[in-house]
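Quick one: structure tokens for this chain, please?
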Amino acid sequence: MIVLSLDTCLSSCSVAVVDGARVLAFAREVMARGHQERLAPMAREVMAAAGLTFDRLDRIAVTVGPGSFTGLRVGIAFAKGLALALDLPAVGIGTLEALAAEAGGLVFPVIDARRGQLYLQAFEDGRALMAPDALSADTAAARLADLSQGRPFTLAGSGAALLAEVAPAAAVIAAEGADARHVARLAVTRAPGPLKPLYLRAPDAKLPA
């Protein structure tokens, strides 16, 4: 199965083409903004690097959050449009689950959600131990202590270094976004369905009074 996968949820833009376990092409750029302008050209570049035309694809995959509201909308809208144009199934993958794929064993993917909060989830060998949640650093540290029970664990994501200050980890992976290669591999095992963003809190922007 050939999958084109995308991630624009955080401070990077990542695109991969994967055929089963084999990565055909991959690109990632760190960027705080500009995902909308860069995503389509990057997808074309990655497909060209893989030596494929878009009609060779079997599936589209994209991270659906949590993450930045703008980034989420960019990735999901592009994936929906491409899947519709090519008449292909689409699969949404949680950003935290994709981050957890950076390591084996007990992994706590964590995203710096700003405003004194962290987005946190827990996985052990790919199995979710808790649902994604928005927590303060102290509450997140307490959750880690409860779930780890003294066992070594890995922190992965943009909030990993912050949480490591109050919850020492065996390893810290400070990823600025999900790796599209992991997104593709996870998507192969999932049933396609409607792409819906995963929001853990209301947007920062407020409507004028």
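The mean pLDDT is 94.
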